[in-house]
Amino acid sequence: MRFTAGLVLSLILVSGAAAAPVAVDFDSEFGAYHLLGEIVSGECEGMVPGLGIKSAVYTDGESYLYLYQLQNNAGSGVKRVTFAPFSDVSLDTLVGYLQTHDLADFQEDGLAPVLAETGDHERVSPFAGFSFRSYGQGSALLPNEHSAVLFVKSDRRPTMIDANVLFNDGNATGEVYGAVPEPMTILFLASGALMLRRRSN
Question: Which UniProt keywords are given for this protein, alphabetically ordered (predicted)?
Answer without folding.
Answer: Signal
